[in-house]
């Protein structure tokens, strides 16, 4: 069960189950065998929080006790207020504004989850190391930028099937065409000499800003657009884990060309107030998107503790999502999925155990479904993985689809193996 708890305060999610739901049926293309496919459990076994002994406090210790401890920490911070720079002062002000929502909401949601037997510290006890496969496709994407752009008049079909007739994938052009897996089954395919697990009814484009034209020409307008930009910050520059992007460059994203009327636009934002202000005051207005809510993703351990101290100066146990509606010139238009616009409540919490893999976010498909409809067309920008039924774009779009992140075992349930051919 991927949605463990749902209430007026938000949701508790099982992030791994959200991934596994897309792979209930999986076909290994090279030998046409039916396999069981699950994302590796050790990626979501965050057993301990990063609390110091003096400041440790589990969410389930009780809100009164937690409030007393965090209030003492808050008083200590105020004495050092003059030592903070402006960015830190702004960050602290935002934190004080939402901390009670995080503290009380998480306590309520965790109480419900633990009463149902979830987040009680029980794990699969898998002691294998985390997958460390480097996706070579990102490097190939960088090399593809050196190829000359094709004139629009000479542009061939911008869409291609993942699996051609006869089960061949050797000629798939990942960098200048949208690739579709129209099958009912997830498919394990070999791309550029590596195996990847591709969910059913999904489409993706592996490119950067300079090669987005196939996505624009794809011919779809989306009812939901989710993005997790590679924000600039000092830790990213030090670690060199991925290339960051100046905030101003995000304005180049062709959202008005991709969004349907009233499209819900959701952006993951770091805890830097400057990034939050940029999204609210510059980026969304530039696209014609109206801010409607801010949600918070709260990260907890397998036993329900915050992964970082709630009042930590350096890292917080939450991240912000800014939700907005794209307002086209047709004020009374409805979305292409034919659903009416549902109101989006403010300050909802999404509580889950985070992935130990860098920058892997939980799927928002289930929590956003009431606001876009079950049949909505969904797009993820700066994606590092794929979702069933979604279109995804980014220069690392297959990062977490590499077979090394999954446990693949022969199926013994007698399931019928499909003979091929795209789904209707």
Q: Key features?
A:
single chain; 424 residues; alpha/beta; Rossmann fold; twelve-stranded mixed beta sheet; five-stranded mixed beta sheet; 9 helices; 23% helix; 23% strand; globular
Give a verbal description of the structure.
Residues 66-86 are annotated as: Disordered. Pfam families: MT-A70 (PF05063). It comes from Zoarces viviparus. This protein has a single domain (3-46, 122-410), classed as Vaccinia Virus protein VP39 (Rossmann fold). By secondary structure, it is of the alpha/beta class. The model is unreliable at 52-58, 60-71, 236-240, 331-339 and 417-424 (pLDDT under 50). The protein contains 9 helices and 17 strands. It has helices at residues 15-20, 63-79, 86-115, 136-144, 213-216, 234-239, 255-258, 273-287, 365-372, and strands at residues 3-7, 10-13, 26-28, 33-39, 159-161, 178-181, 186-191, 194-198, 202-206, 222-227, 259-269, 289-299, 318-326, 349-352, 378-381, 390-394, 406-410. It is globular and about 60 Å long.
Instruction: Figure out the total of helices.
Output: 9
Supply the CATH class.
Alpha Beta
**What is the total domain count?**
1
Instruction: Please bin the fraction of helical residues.
Output: 10-25%
Assign the CATH topology: Rossmann fold
Count every beta strand, where a strand is a DSSP E run of 2 or more residues.
17
């Amino acid at each position: 069960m991927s949605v463990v708890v749902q209430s007026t305060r938000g949701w508790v999610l099982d992030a791994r189950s959200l991934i596994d739901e897309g792979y209930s049926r999986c076909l290994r293309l090279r030998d046409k065998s039916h396999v069981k496919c699950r994302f590796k459990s050790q990626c979501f076994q965050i057993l301990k929080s990063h609390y110091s002994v003096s400041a440790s406090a589990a969410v389930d210790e009780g809100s009164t006790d937690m409030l007393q401890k965090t209030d003492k920490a808050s008083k200590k911070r105020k004495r050092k207020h003059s030592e903070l720079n402006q960015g830190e002062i702004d960050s602290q002000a935002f934190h004080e504004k939402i901390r009670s929502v995080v503290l009380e909401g998480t306590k309520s949601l965790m109480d419900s989850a633990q009463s149902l037997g979830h987040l009680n510290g029980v794990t699969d006890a898998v002691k294998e190391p985390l997958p460390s496969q480097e996706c070579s496709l990102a490097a190939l994407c960088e090399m593809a930028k050196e190829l000359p752009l094709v004139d629009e008049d000479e542009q061939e079909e911008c869409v291609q099937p993942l699996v051609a007739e006869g089960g061949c994938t050797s000629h798939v052009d990942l960098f200048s065409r949208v690739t579709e897996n129209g099958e009912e089954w997830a498919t394990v395919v070999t791309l550029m000499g590596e195996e990847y697990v591709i969910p059913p009814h999904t489409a993706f484009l592996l490119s950067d800003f300079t090669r987005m034209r196939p996505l624009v020409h794809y011919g779809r307008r989306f009812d939901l657009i989710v993005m997790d930009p590679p924000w600039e910050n000092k830790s990213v520059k030090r670690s060199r884990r991925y290339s960051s992007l100046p905030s101003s460059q995000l304005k180049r994203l062709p959202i008005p060309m991709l969004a349907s009327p009233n499209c819900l636009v959701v952006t993951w934002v770091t805890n830097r107030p400057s990034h939050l202000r940029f999204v609210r005051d510059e980026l969304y207005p530039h696209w014609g998107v109206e801010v409607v809510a801010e949600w918070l993703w709260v990260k907890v351990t397998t036993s329900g503790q915050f992964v970082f101290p709630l009042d930590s100066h350096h890292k917080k146990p939450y991240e912000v999502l800014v939700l907005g509606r794209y307002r086209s010139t047709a004020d009374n238009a409805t979305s292409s999925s034919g659903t009416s616009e549902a109101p989006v409540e403010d300050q909802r919490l999404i509580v889950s155990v985070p992935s130990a893999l860098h920058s892997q976010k939980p799927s928002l498909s289930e929590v956003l479904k009431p606001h876009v409809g079950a049949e909505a067309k969904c797009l993820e920008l700066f994606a590092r993985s794929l979702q069933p039924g979604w279109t995804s774009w980014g220069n690392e779009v297959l990062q977490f689809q590499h077979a090394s992140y999954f446990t693949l075992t022969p199926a013994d349930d007698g399931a019928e193996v499909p003979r091929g051919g795209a789904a209707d």
